[in-house]
Amino acid sequence: SSTMVALRQVEDDTLRSALEAAVGEISSTRPKYPNLSCAETAVKYLSLYLKAHNPRIKSEHIRSIYHTKLTEFKQRCALVDRLFEPSQVRVRVCVCPREGGGGGGGGGYVS
Q1: Distance CA 77, CA 58 (A)
Q2: Measured between alpha carbons, how far is residue 18 from residues 21, 41, 104 in Å?
């Protein structure tokens, strides 16, 4: 019975430290995944983080898969920030001839 209590305490401490690290990363980076709400992003990030840092996963291959998924998730979250950086916004104006060969320019658009 005292052994079970000690094991439970170790598990609680391990989970607590993993959660603190994950929540710390979430609060410092404030990830936002495209098409997910902030809450959904945080839950997804938390689940990927816990899987990637699970000490019970003995297979290095499985652990690397979860680390890759977490890294890809972080990169996609960062994409939103990169899209709105002022240095990344470029406007290109194209002038296209009107259909029907009716001479002259016109029909400009911005892409």
Answers
A1: 28
A2: 5, 18, 66
Please state at what angle helix 38-52 crosses helix 2-29, rounded to 10 degrees. Answer: 130
* Two structure tokens written together for 10: 């170790």
Structure tokens given for 95: 């002038």
Q: Note the pLDDT tens digit of each residue in 20-34.
A: 999 999 999 899 998
Token pair 């680390």 in the structure block, residue:
67
How does DSSP assign 78-99, residue by residue? HHHHHHT-GGG----EE--PPT
Q: What is the pLDDT of residues 8-60, one digit of tens each?
A: 887 788 888 889 999 999 999 899 998 999 999 999 999 999 999 988 888 99
Q: Name 12's Cβ contacts closer than 8 Å, sequence gap at least 6.
A: none
The rounded distance, in Å, linking the Cα atoms of 52 and 65 is 8
Q: How many whole angstroms separate alpha carbon 83 and alpha carbon 111? A: 15
Distance, in Å, from the CA atom of 25 to the CA atom of 48, rounded to the nearest integer, reads 12
Residue at token pair 């016109």: 106
